[in-house]
Amino acid sequence: MRDPTATISIENVVASTAIGQELDLQSVAMDLDGADYDPEQFPGLVYRTQSPKSAALIFRSGKVVCTGANSTEAVHGSLEIVFEKLRALQIPVDDDPEITVQNIVSSADLGVSLNLNAIAIGLGLENIEYEPEQFPGLVYRLDDPEVVALLFGSGKLVITGGTAREDAEQAVDVIADRLDELGLL
Prior knowledge:
The chain is built from four helices and nine strands; from the N terminus they run βαβββαβαββββα. By secondary structure, the protein is α+β, with helices and mostly antiparallel strands.
């Protein structure tokens, strides 16, 4: 069997930062080309970067959430663009604001079809949720690393809740080892 960790792909990185002061989002929206601000729909201003591709959600409090990036490097690159745009509008932004990765969503492929009913029984009901009439995947909550994995009959996995690529790699290894021990791989 090929190494399933080699199939890991980061789909989305969510990170947060703060610029350290309150903002008048209405005036920022008017001055920042390409900004979307509709407080009736969403309390933050949305600013999208194209390269790297992501969306920055900028809030009145000065907090900024970056989502949609496919790596932590892309998060840092996108936020640096946002910081530069704000500085260009005479909004003071620290030279190096702290950026915290909140969540990384990854996908992987075990390369074999999975019998989710057998896996649900084998893994034990305390760590899993499986209601195929509600959702086609099995939800597996791991303690170490502390992530949630969705297992699908196709052998594909979605891992969420980690803060580094290594969390996904470790989760895939743990899942593959457990399923192998149970004779379900």
